[in-house]
Amino acid sequence: MIGYVTLGTRDLGRAAVFYDAIAAEMGTGRTMEFDGFIAWGKPEGTGICLTRPFDGQSASVGNGVMVALAATDQAQVQRLHDIALANGGSDEGAPGFRGEGFYAAYFRDPDGNKLNAFVMG
């Protein structure tokens, strides 16, 4: 149902380092790039896009908004959490079970956007 998610950034260069590393771990890369906008993902699947807000105002974080990244296994959840923290992200919850069959880690990108990496089962 979801085609892509767009998040705002105050510093596209800094954010690109973060998302390049996350995307590489997930076996993908940049799919589109032009002035002030970068997208990552696979052409046939969901992607994440970053941009400076069109209205010229500062990017801000949505309260209660989170982007979930589907990992292949628990080890990849751990790697994604580690990569996020190594590339300017901050911890919002270490990898672990959050309910029966739901394993996840939570983190924020350099602009404060909340993400998680998860695997079911």
UniProtKB/TrEMBL annotation:
GO molecular function: dioxygenase activity; lyase activity
CDD domains linked to this entry: VOC_like
InterPro entries per record: Glyas_Bleomycin-R_OHBP_Dase, Glyas_Fos-R_dOase_dom, VOC_core
Sequence ranges assigned to domain VOC in this UniProt record: 1-120
Protein name per the record: Catechol 2,3-dioxygenase-like lactoylglutathione lyase family enzyme
Lineage: Bacteria, Pseudomonadati, Pseudomonadota, Alphaproteobacteria, Sphingomonadales
Tree of life domain: Bacteria
PROSITE patterns given in the database record: VOC
UniProt organism field: Sphingopyxis panaciterrulae
